[in-house]
Amino acid sequence: MSELYFLKNRGNPESKTIDFYLAHGGYEALKKTLKSFEPNDVIEEVKKSGLRGRGGAGFPTGLKWSFVPQDNPNPKYLVCNADESEPGTFKDRYIIEHEPHMLIEGMIISSYAIRSHLAYIYIRGEFVQGARILEEALAEAREKGFLGKNILGSGYDLDIYVHRGGGAYICGEETGLLESLEGKRGWPRLKPPFPAVVGLFKSPTIINNVETLANVPLIMERGGDWYSQLGPNPKNAGIKLYCVSGHVNRPGLFEFEMGMNLKELIYEHAGGIYKGHQLKGVIPGGSSTPVLRPDEIDVSMDYDSLAAIGTMFGSAGTIVMDETTCMVDALYNLERFYAHESCGQCTPCREGTMWMVKLLRRLEHGEGTVEDVDLLADIAGNIMGRTICPLGDAAAMPAKSFVQKFRDEFIEHAKQHKCPVKKDKSIKVTDANA
Amino acid sequence: MAVEFSEAAKQEFAEILNHYPTKEAAMLPTLHLAKREFGQISPEVMTYISQLLDLHVTRVANVVSFYTLFPREPEGKYVIQVCSTLSCQLMGAETVVDHIKKKLAIDVGETTPDKKFTLKKVECLGSCGTAPVMQINDDYYEQLTVEKIDKILDSLE
Ligand SMILES: Cc1cc2nc3c(=O)[nH]c(=O)nc-3n(C[C@H](O)[C@H](O)[C@H](O)COP(=O)(O)O)c2cc1C
Ligand code: SF4
Ligand code: FES
Questions:
Q1: Which of residues 56-95 of A touch B (CB under 8 A)?
Q2: Which label site among B51, B97, B122, B141 has the fewest CB atoms less than 10 Å from its CB?
Q3: Would you give per-residue pLDDT tens digits along chain B (157 residues)?
Q4: Could you tell me if A326 and A364 are in contact, meaning their C-beta atoms sit under 8 angstroms apart?
Q5: Global pTM value
């Protein structure tokens, strides 16, 4: 696709208003859908498009929707996951603040597809402005008859409410989110049952990421077949927002077809490594995804290509680290994050993250031993696959990969009894475009 | 000391209840409302909310303690939250924190004696592309520099 979709109005403060959106073809996809598509046909169209979830796991969206049991007498719910808190990720915030109607139109079509009449946007509590913008956009949509009773004369009813989180990363995990939305601690639930069958208020529920849902109007407008042609192959189809942060000259948000080359993304679009420094490592898809060495970044940024080299596309939050980065210190930072955000229900996650933090602090401060390096990898291995939710794995994967790929640097910390890296703690000024 | 919502907040609360099939689901929106009304979620506030939502007060306390956005004690008029997660750390978050510490003569977690500023370190604010980042009350401040920080803090009344 040569023209931009998500970022086409970047820099235009009017883009968030319904008048602007309508003047540029907004809500046409909704009109078309309600007029000529049965709910099941929408699901088929989205299946055809090849759209996969943009929240992290990449699960096929249409297939997920088809799991909603239509013979279940309970109401069905759609929940938009706007918790955006995976370190390195800042794409949903752009859509929320600049293209809220794209999300709302996508949610109306998606709710129609799964026959839901009540939907929520669970937005992280810190996004106060974003929540305000969404409230205003929802009011505009209601006023124009896109929400409420008998939408556009179709007989279909839907309400959407904004629900602000309370500040907890784990509420981005879909079942933690549901617990939180029900007014409880965000403690993830054991699966199965999956939310599509037993979700919010014990009823069938579909949870989708902001970017996933905001793709839906485009798919309905141009057709699933058309959408599936974008990107390297039908299994990794469509358009994608890429977030680049860390040591580059031009960090920010970029939109391309799926399959942008990671090296090109960093060196061309993000302006190369900060001040011409040497690259040391890249976390490709948000803090939970295994780190790559510089010799591994000539790779297509899509679900399957990144999986093939042992990492993940995740939330497309690329974090770039240059030669001034100490890999022990970087991992120490990330494991502090996971230890802080562990909900504490599972022993391996609660204790494991805490021990990893202790070991990393020891190593970084020159008090660690060579055995500690292996112990660290060991603890990570003991968390993997032994927890209720994937946060445990999310904490373990960086640890395993950092130790594996930068082992020498970890060992040097132990041998030299100090951090051997010339770190740069100064504030870096860039030409950010987000 | 018994607390009570203002008339406007009572109306907002009634509207919130309309959004959910259960009263308990109104918990987080009610806590946000209470934070705005009372500035903190003290034990009295928890009792009040438990009455509003027909829940035992321990249910409310259990939720409040889980989240970071519901302070149980009063905070400064401006709560400065500096992101300290990886992307921000790479771009100089430690220097940001050190500068604010020195400027306000407080440590992380403390409030200035005039109750104007509270300084906190927080995890990723979802704005990593414009690191380093901080949030003061409802607003984000991005691509921080020492000069920018000074200007922002000096402009707050
Ligand atoms: C610890 C953890 C945190 C997560 N945080 C988010 C998040 O902030 N936003 C999001 O959309 N998905 C997040 N997810 C993924 C969700 O659980 C879920 O897979 C996703 O919202 C499904 O939407 P999708 O199919 O459209 O991707 C997280 C998962 C885990 C395990
Ligand atoms: S893995 Fe961690 S975050 Fe997930 S449920 Fe267990 S303790 Fe909680
Ligand atoms: S790491 Fe600071 S905003 Fe994400």
A1: 75, 84-90, 92-93
A2: B51
A3: 689 999 999 999 999 999 999 999 999 999 999 999 999 999 999 999 999 999 999 999 999 999 999 999 999 999 999 999 999 999 999 999 999 999 999 999 999 999 999 999 999 999 999 999 999 999 999 999 999 999 999 999 9
A4: yes
A5: 0.98
Q: Are B31 and B63 in contact (CB under 8 A)?
A: yes
Contact A129 B140 (CB under 8 A): yes
Q: For residues A12 and A331, what is the distance between their CA atoms, to the nearest angstrom?
A: 38
CA atoms of A169 and A315, how far apart (whole Å): 14
CA angle B22–A346–A332, rounded 5-degree value: 115
**CA B86, CA B131: separation in Å to the nearest integer?**
10
Q: How many CB pairs under 8 A join A and B?
A: 174
Written as one letter, the residue type at A36 is: S
Which residues 366-385 of chain A have a CB within 8 Å of chain B? none
Buried b (16+ CB within 10 A) or exposed e, A353-383: bebbbbbbbbbbeeebbeebbebbbebbeeb
d(CA B4, CA B6): 7
- Whether ipTM tops 0.90, in short, is yes
Tokens of A191: 């699966």
Instruction: Work out the minimum CA distance from A224 to partner chain B, whole angstroms.
Output: 31
Residue matched to tokens 């750390």: B89
Q: Do the beta carbons of residue B78 and residue B136 sit within 8 Å?
A: yes
